[in-house]
């Protein structure tokens, strides 16, 4: 599925709920803050009153808001502690990041086959792992990764149970000759939103990583979807 397809067309109440959730997560609305009325929310976001009600109800069900008849809606939840991911610009730094803070891994699926059509160069078999990475019980990214099956066979247990990049970099005889990553900004589809615990159409960062070995052969390909608030781009500028 392409990144544009992932973005999809989310329901309007999900868009509104995500905007309100971000105000809580960022501390803009502290616990005890009275939320604008449904009429005010409908006007602010240009939606029907029913849509605003659905958005508020979603956050009530998440425990972030408390709607009381006659006294309005107030914030009850606290900002979630979401892992902050700094964009790394070297392969060594990327591997070290995973070693410093190993993620909690939940596997969604495993299969075998060639790379997706857009990245396929030959008929090499790859092991595809789909997983969710979390820290402190809070999911921060969904990953679909492909490892050359011959490489995977060298350490299948470690690849299944640990962050893949440090395992790959420490493997004797598996030399990465070129590494490239691309990051774009988009929105979460329904499945991604469910795994990350965000509203459909919430902002996310799509990162594609490709590691090549001898002759440009793809050893590793990963499609990573990060929660929008988890990604931080910090670059020192040359003066």
Overall description:
- By secondary structure, the protein is an alpha+beta fold.
- It folds into 2 domains: 73 residues, Winged helix-like DNA-binding domain superfamily/Winged helix DNA-binding domain (Arc Repressor Mutant, subunit A), CATH 1.10.10; 148 residues, Chorismate lyase.
- Helix content is 31%, strand content 31%.
- The chain has 9 helices and 10 strands.
- The strands form 3 sheets. The protein has a 6-stranded antiparallel sheet with strand order 4-5-6-9-8-7. The protein has a two-stranded antiparallel ribbon with strand order 1-2. Strands 3-10 form a two-stranded parallel sheet.
- Strand 1 and strand 2 form a beta hairpin.
- It is elongated, with a radius of gyration of 21 Å.
Keywords:
disordered N terminus, Chorismate lyase, Arc Repressor Mutant, subunit A, 239 residues, 9 helices, 2 domains, alpha+beta, six-stranded antiparallel β-sheet, 10 strands
What is the structure about, briefly put?
InterPro entries: Bact_HTH_transcr_reg, Chorismate_lyase_/UTRA_dom_sf, Tscrpt_reg_HTH_GntR, UTRA, WH-like_DNA-bd_sf, WH_DNA-bd_sf. This protein is an alpha+beta fold and 239 residues long.
């Amino acid at each position: 599925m392409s990144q544009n397809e992932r973005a999809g067309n989310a329901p309007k109440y999900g868009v509104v709920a995500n905007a309100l959730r971000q105000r809580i997560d960022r501390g803009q609305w502290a616990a005890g803050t009275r939320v604008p009325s449904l009429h005010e929310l409908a006007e602010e976001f240009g939606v029907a009153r029913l849509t605003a009600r659905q958005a508020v109800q979603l956050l009530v069900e998440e425990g972030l808001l408390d709607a009381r008849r006659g006294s309005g809606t107030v914030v009850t939840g606290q900002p979630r502690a979401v892992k902050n991911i700094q964009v790394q610009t070297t392969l060594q730094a990327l591997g070290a990041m995973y070693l410093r803070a190993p993620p909690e891994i939940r596997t969604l699926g495993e299969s075998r086959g060639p790379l997706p059509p857009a990245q396929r160069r030959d008929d090499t078999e790859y092991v595809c792992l789909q997983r969710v990475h979390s820290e402190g019980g809070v999911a921060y990214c969904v990953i679909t990764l492909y490892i050359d099956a011959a490489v995977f066979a060298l350490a299948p247990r470690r690849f299944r149970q640990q962050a893949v990049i440090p395992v790959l970099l420490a493997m004797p005889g598996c030399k990465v000759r070129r590494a490239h990553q691309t990051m774009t900004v988009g929105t979460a589809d329904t499945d991604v939103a469910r795994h990350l615990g965000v509203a459909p159409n919430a902002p996310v960062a799509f990162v594609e990583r490709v590691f090549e070995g001898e002759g440009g052969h793809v050893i590793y390909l990963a499609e990573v979807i990060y929660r929008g608030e988890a990604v931080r781009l910090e670059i020192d500028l040359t003066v």
